[in-house]
Amino acid sequence: MDVSRLLLMAEQARQHAYAPYSGFHVGAALLTADNRIFTGCNVENSSYGLTVCAERAAVFNAVSAGKKDFLALAVISDGGGYCRPCGACRQVIREFGRDIQIIMASKDRQYEIKKISELLPEEFAF
Ligand code: THU
User: Fold this and answer.
1) In what order do the strands lie in the sheet with 70-77?
2) Ligand 1 within 6 A of CB of 21
3) Chain segment 89-102, per-residue pLDDT in tens
4) Structural domains in the chain?
5) What's the pLDDT band for 31 if we cut at 50, 70, 90?
6) 42 Cα: distance to centroid of ligand 1 (angstroms)
């Protein structure tokens, strides 16, 4: 897995973030088993609850293209510290596997990697 490439793609996606309310820009890059990368950014709304996070945008982008086998997802913001997926995004990522590696990066490209099953133990599942 090429972490630098994933981070670069996540940074590029972050440039498209629409975050006029929080000022917090997030980008995500999702690696599929067939070595493709799908990206996403956060898209906010004046009706705040309609906001979609970068991670979910990346997952929905991949699924919309017919991809469901995911190996890793990198997420990076322009805030301080490592960017960690919110609870809703953890549940959405977990839908597609327990072993997906989540690369949580800081804006200076330091990162920590954990499996989604570590980030969301005892998830809801049918
Ligand atoms: N956000 C993400 O896109 N991903 C995260 O992991 C955390 C939060 C977005 C949602 C909102 O647009 C902004 O960051 C502040 O919460």
Assistant:
1) 37-41, 26-32, 70-77, 101-105, 111-115
2) no
3) 999 999 999 999 99
4) 3-119 (3.40.140.10)
5) very high
6) 6
Average pLDDT over residues 57-68: 98
Tell me phi and psi for residue 38, to 5 degrees.
-115, 140
pLDDT category, 4, cuts 50, 70, 90? very high
CB–CB of 116/59 below 8 Å?
no
Give yes or no: 112 in active site. no
Q: What spacing in Å lies between the alpha carbon of 41 and ligand 1's midpoint? A: 9
pTM of the model: 0.97
Q: Which of 14, 15, 30, 42 is the best mutation target for the ligand 1 pocket, counting ligand atoms within 8 Å of the beta carbon and taking the most?
A: 42
